[in-house]
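Lecture 7 notes: from sequence to structure.

We start with a single chain of 209 residues. Read the sequence below before looking at the structure.
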Amino acid sequence: LHNMSELDLLSKLSRKIFHDLINPASAALNGVELFKLIIPEEKKSLLDDEAFQLIEKSASKTLSQLKIYRIAYADITSEIFASIKIEEFRKSTDDFISHTKLNVNFNIENEQIGKWSAVILSNIYILSVQLFPQGAGIYIKRIDEKELLIELESNSETLNFDLYEQLNDMGSRSDNVQVVFYKLLLKQYRIEQNISKIDNKIYLELTIN
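Now the structure, written as tokens:
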């Protein structure tokens, strides 16, 4: 443990937590779905009950968060330039997006995405929930082996400026654990970030060296 970097330690601890939680969360959601299938017809009205719908929504949201966190906090040191299918990546992130005010658009033709891009994108999705309280559109403009280009457009004039400044100034200190982890990611994998803001749009260009 003494030889581990901060990023390695955070990743290892996070993966352990997610591994311990994802199975019971999946079981809870599967239990809800099974209950919907076997409930007698005369009791179907229970499915419209506010309490039941809250349980179903909460279980689904928790599982979606665990899935994206598992990607965001993955250790890809030994396979940083390996690729996964975009379809596979989206299976693990679209559920999370559906529980937020974000809308993601892949304006690209790629069928594959580099693992480093998948990790960075997952972190950006999570950060965007905090960055844009009223929601935003996330437009993936370009993905290739070395570069990731993203445009984020707020749904309103509301922006978490403090968080934006923390992301803009890589040397600044932050109490936000997600910002700290994101900065450690960029440093560890030697990813250069260029970020700019025009009106209600933020432009992110990330290049791995």
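The first strand starts at residue 83 and ends at 85. Keep this in mind for problem set 3.
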